[in-house]
Protein: HTH cro/C1-type domain-containing protein
Organism: Listeria newyorkensis
Amino acid sequence: MKKIFCINCYEESKHDEKFVAEIVNVRGLDLEVEHRYLECTICGELMEDPSNLDYNYIIDFKEYRRVKGLLQPEEIKMIREMYNMSQRDFADVLGMSHATLCRYEGGALQTEHHNSTFILATTPNALHKLVYMKFQATGNEKYENMLENIARVAGDIHNLSSNKSDHLELERMRGELLGYTNKFSKTQSIGTHVTKLLSGKHIKIHEDRRKVMSNFKGESGWKV
Ligand SMILES: [Zn+2]
């Protein structure tokens, strides 16, 4: 329990950690999430943890990606690292800015278009074709090195039938890459919770939060 200045009762008071189920709207989709707040032990007012202001946004985006079947930030990073590529090179090959890829790996919400691009990049032959065309057009030898790495990944997949244990290992890895977002299926219906939550104080808090939501760009580190 730590002492924080309460903006409601104007006291330097002790705050308890409190988790509250809320409905948030991300890109037009209502999601049920569990947000973390600090509760003033004097007046009961809830506030977001000033030392970790991104926490609840990261929860929201994570849930949005899960519901929409989008890749999570760590999965995007896994795909890139499968080819042993730097952020700069991977972004270049996929036709997005380095800053954009950095933000996605740092927790910002990717577009559906970019999400599809990442999924297509899990197929080595597709990525190889992209890089090969860049190599042909520019003659830049950095693309040659990328082609070697991609060919190695493609070769690993091709040669699997001769090695059962490697095959299983790769299937597990690909399962993690592409199946992860569907692993935790939710059985609870959001509709029943909407009704339950609509009258509560947390809705007010949520409305306040929504105002600043569009400013979050995911520049800070991954904290969840
Ligand atoms: Zn207070």
Remarks:
- Confidence is low (pLDDT under 50) at residues 179-207, 210-224.
- Strands lie at 2-5, 12-26, 29-40, 46-47.
- The longest strand covers residues 12-26.
- Residues 6, 8-9, 11, 13, 40, 42-43, 45 surround zinc ion (CB under 6 Å).
